[in-house]
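batch_manifest entry 22 of 60
target: Glycogen synthase
source organism: Faecalibacterium prausnitzii L2-6
requested by: lab member K.T.
priority: normal
notes from requester: please return tokens only, no post-processing; we will run our own comparison against the previous entry in this batch. if the run fails, retry once and flag.
--- input ---
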Amino acid sequence: MKILYAASEATPFAKSGGLADVAGSLPKALVKDGVDARVIMPLYGDLKLRDKLEYVTNYSVPVGWRSQYCGLFKAEVNGVTYYFLDNEYYFKRRGLYGFYDDGERFAFFSRAVLETLFYIDFTPDIINCNDWQTALVPVYLNLYYRHLDKFNRIKTIFTIHNIAYQGKYGTDILEDTCGIGRRDQHIVEYDGCANFMKGAIETADKITTVSPTYAQEILDPWFSYGLDALLREKQYKLCGILNGIDTEANDPATDPHIAFNYDVNNFEEGKAKCKEALQDKFGLDKDGSPVFAMVSRMVGMKGFDLVQSVADGLVDRGIELVILGSGESQYENFFSDLCGRHPGRVGTYIGFEPALSQEIYAGADAFIMPSKSEPCGLAQMVACRYGTPPIIRETGGLRDSIHDCTLGEGNGFTFAGYSAHELYDACCRAQDRYYSKEDWNNLIKYDMECDFSWDVSAKSYEGLYNETANLW
Ligand code: GLC
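--- output ---
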């Protein structure tokens, strides 16, 4: 089975969010299972590990009525071949997205993915596209390549990592920039806009999302950002597969960034040392209080408004808080201010600092993730692996991966309603449990033994790939 995994970011080369982790770790797991999975992504100006890249060739790619240069490079990491598409005009910029011409940049990239197949000795059975940036791949495949021998058997899967970002533009970009003529524009038009994700939902052979619960949720207007009606119509080809995490890169036994390495046999000593180091770093009191932490982009979707409502209350109850992230200024300001108001009780770091995040996963006692919506979420799984029980709201992949331990077997503390009271209550339950040493240690052990590796989910993808390849 040959899979081309098309993504706009993938570790270890470029990352802005969870998509990069998945694009870096799922293909690796597939290759380990004997699947020939290769990744294709843009060659960004600030790409990491540039010295690993090897030039292959170059060609022209149609972008509307023009032709643009495309250079092809490749590299091999962890047994996975990565292809990089180079065009400095589009990709030699600081950062990955957020430019005025993102629509054109990723129309180019999507078209270039297909053109590349003329120049490499690899014809995939399936192209697995991810999010709006690669959503035009199945559209272009059907419109312009399907009649060619090389392409007529290729199937496409479109994976939605976050339905909030659809690639929406004015319809005027369709003909001139995307090269999609009047007759075909209905494929990508939705609600009076050009909508790349809509095009993929129409044309891909299968649609997947990153957790079973999210696959249900996006059929509902509360979660769908306007696409529920279309998705209900296409439900026959929709399914959800829970992401895994890279258990080698996220391993407290080998993690070079944490104060003391530990595993399930010596976590008591290990976590205590990591906690002390964390408290020292943030100037927190070492008086036996539990440390609850959050590592997240500071945006509304992640539930920061709930945390904001309960933060002072939690500190008053004797819980220390550590918050790392950046994003909307209202939250950045609130948590900086909270830190100033509670010296020795709250630590705030505004920014993203991968090494410090790992120190927090290891040193915190519990991990807060009260998202309003969470397609999958990886941080809660990483927290478990580091023996840091998550406190989560039951949505998307959080609901599928974390189960409440209050009344029975479980790996964390959960609540259902999007309410500050329920979050507060879940935090109190976690704090009570924390003071019962034996129960808490049993919970940590249980969490560290949860299997969030790709072993299970990669098999689900393989099943789906086989089913899709055999479609008519
Ligand atoms: C997006 C989602 C997140 C998911 C990740 C990887 O970032 O918001 O929930 O874990 O993609 O699929």
